[in-house]
TrEMBL record:
Alphabetical list of InterPro entries matching this protein: OSBP_sf, Oxysterol-bd
Name the record gives this protein: Oxysterol-binding protein, putative
SUPFAM superfamilies: Oxysterol-binding protein-like
Pfam families linked: Oxysterol_BP
Native source organism of the sequence: Entamoeba histolytica KU27
Family: Belongs to the OSBP family.
Key word Magnesium present: no
UniProt keyword list: Membrane, Transmembrane, Transmembrane helix
Transmembrane segments: 277-296
One GO location term (cellular component): cytosol
Superkingdom of the organism of origin: Eukaryota
Keyword Ion transport tagged: no
Single annotated GO MF: sterol binding
Length: 297
């Protein structure tokens, strides 16, 4: 894998301009696929090539696809049929993101990121940097202690969801790069952190024991134009619960910030009044003292 360069121009003449330029290569030795992407530079007298790419995807040296276009507007591709097709419209995806899917906190393991760093996250939302730092140090110390125990006992850590691979280094245990077969397969689903493929002749169950009906999967595939099965309603409720919890923390942080700001504002307003009142009291005491002195003499 190689990456392009970032160039800057226009320091002395013309507007400052930054560009991505050069060649980037991505290669998968396991499948034989290779992608070569050339980031074009703006011409001396023309800007037609500005923010554009020319790329090709090959398999075992044979060209499979060509890709070109402006990566801030729209990219196109064509296969062996030489028919130009739209690959990606940037305006269509601006501001959009894939909904986050999380496991219920009670079902997460001890070392799940959401659960492990929850106290740190909550403290950050509340603006409590002291607590956040303390909880962060606790997590790090726990990890150091575990590593030292492994070293002292000669224990070898065996990952649950990744295996050593000569090509990729580490590979997901359920890694599957085979082509989707709509004649035999209904789609993929996640079950206890494992990605499984549901075949048409199977009668699989997921988590809660409810049977997955073929018509439900088929409609899901048609709607999403993808073999990936959408999350169940229970998972959507869990996502909603997590979002509400996050919103609650954010609101609490906002309330605390407002209270703190209000307190500081009132303190700034009251402090000058206190000074003035103190001066008035001193002046009154001085006047009373002068009157008593005059009366006695």
């Amino acid at each position: 894998m190689t990456f392009p360069e970032v160039l800057a121009s226009g320091f002395f003449v013309g507007p400052m301009l930054m560009e991505i330029a050069g060649k980037s290569v991505f290669e998968c030795k396991e499948t034989g696929y290779k992608a070569e992407v050339i980031f074009n530079l703006r011409g001396t007298f023309s800007s037609d090539k500005y923010q554009t790419v020319d790329a090709k995807i090959t398999k075992n040296g044979e060209e499979v696809y060509k890709i070109w276009g402006n990566y801030y507007k729209e990219l196109f591709y064509c296969g062996k049929d030489k028919v130009k097709k739209s690959l990606l419209k940037i305006d269509d995806i601006r501001g959009k993101s894939v909904p986050r899917y999380t496991i219920d906190m009670n079902q997460q393991g001890e070392w799940e990121s959401d659960k492990l760093w929850k106290k740190v996250t909550d403290a950050i939302y509340k603006g409590d940097q002291i607590t956040a730092t303390e909880e962060k140090c606790k997590n790090e110390e726990k990890q150091r202690k575990m590593e030292n125990e492994y070293l002292s006992t000669g224990t070898v850590h065996i990952p649950k969801y990744f295996v050593k691979d000569s090509f990729l280094g580490w590979k997901y245990v359920d890694f599957n790069n085979s082509k989707f077969n709509p004649d035999k397969e209904l789609g993929d689903y996640e079950d206890k952190y494992h990605i499984k493929t549901l075949l048409k002749e199977q009668n699989e169950c997921i988590d809660d024991g409810k049977q997955i009906k073929e018509e439900l999967l088929t409609s899901s595939i048609e709607i999403n134009n993808s073999p990936i099965i959408t999350n169940k309603e229970s998972n959507q409720l869990i996502d909603l619960k997590n979002e509400l919890e996050t919103l609650k923390n954010q609101l609490q942080y906002s309330i605390d910030s407002i209270q703190s700001s209000t307190s500081q504002y009132l303190h700034k307003q009251i402090e000058p009044l206190q000074r003035r009142l103190f001066i008035v009291i001193l002046m009154n005491v001085a006047l009373i003292g002068m009157l008593i002195y005059l009366l006695l003499h």
